[in-house]
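User: I'm preparing a small set of examples for a lab meeting where we compare how different chains pack in three dimensions. I only have the primary sequence for this one, and I'd like the structure in token form so I can line it up with the others. Please keep the answer compact; I'll paste it straight into my notes.
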Amino acid sequence: MIALGLMAAALAAPDAAVPFGPLEKQPPALYEGAFSSAPVPHWRVRLPGGRMNSATHTERSRPTVHEGTVFVGSASGTALYRLSRRDGSLLQTYPAGQSVEAAPTVHDGHVYFADTGGRTWCYTLAGEEVWSHDSRAPILVRPTVADGRVYITNVDDLAVALDAQTGDLVWRYQARKDLTRQSELRLYGAPPAVVAEGSVLLGFSSGGLVSVDAQSGEELWSRRIGEGRYPDLVAGPVAHGADIFASGYFQPLVALDVASQNVRWRIDVGAASAPTVDTRDGWSVVYHPGSDGSLRAVSLLTGAERWVWDSDTGGALGTPTVTEAGLLVGSSAGGIWLLDPEDGSEVWQYQEDQLLQGVTAPATVSGRQLLFVTNAGFLYSMLSPRPRAETVARKPFSWQ
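Assistant: Understood. Below is the structure token output for the 400-residue chain.
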């Protein structure tokens, strides 16, 4: 049995500065192999940055693995943190202006991330600040880095392109307000920018999906997607082949033809997180994480429903993660599940026994390691055991 290691994972003081230098004396823990079976507990640590006394505490930062370390933000901190994959110990701190509530992007020896003060940051992996840029409104998405540019969107319907080396502004795109929407309230969020074929896909609170030229920021086309009381596009669009899959929060999910921008099919349920496209081994499936708490497997070509799994939480689901063991999906008002992709049946479940629970950020799988953050402010590591000759029954468990 794998030891829990809770006592061994020491927590540093909130936002404590960590000296630069060698990150680990031991060889990096990579946990190579396939995530091919239900996981067992490995370790759990409280996120750095202190505690939040709030009934609406939400952790949106998806863990990002880089070799033997994991990058993660914290709703109660003012930095991006680098932790050990071996035991969750704090290795390095990258200071920010406000809380970092989105995943970072590691690219070419640098780490790019944004904070809720509206600032985008670039550091070397060694911890030296290279540049920062202020967009003057909270940012809740990871930066998209491509072709020497950093693309970022904030909650005020503003998208900017920055020079990846200097942070200089290349272009900005401000979406027009929608005067016809049913509710004056907008959701606190925005989807990440998606680069596809020389263009950038942007989603806005109006429910509009816009394509702009990646070099100039000039609008190429726009299409209204979101409908209903909350048409906001907070789920990232997914470009796949000749299609774009995009969803409003309230409704719908659509498959949009890239060339004509015509809707090929639609499902009248929205989402807060991006869908997952699965084309492995001849599959052609889109997994749609509904804002109604249900996961739907639909045909990529027709949108025909294959199966529906209900989390029984009513909370919006996160982006599903495809693994050899099955589909990992979390609920903002529940826990995290492993589902059989054939029929959506439950294989394994973890649910935290605390008031401030739920898993809003998608899980991360690297090798045999599963990493996920709960809204109670904990980072969990679990491991898929190495294959054995005998078959071991998989069953739900709860952390003790």
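A couple of notes for your slides: Residues 1 and 232 are 46 Å apart (CA to CA). Residues 1-21, 390-400 have pLDDT under 50 and may be disordered.

User: Perfect, thanks.
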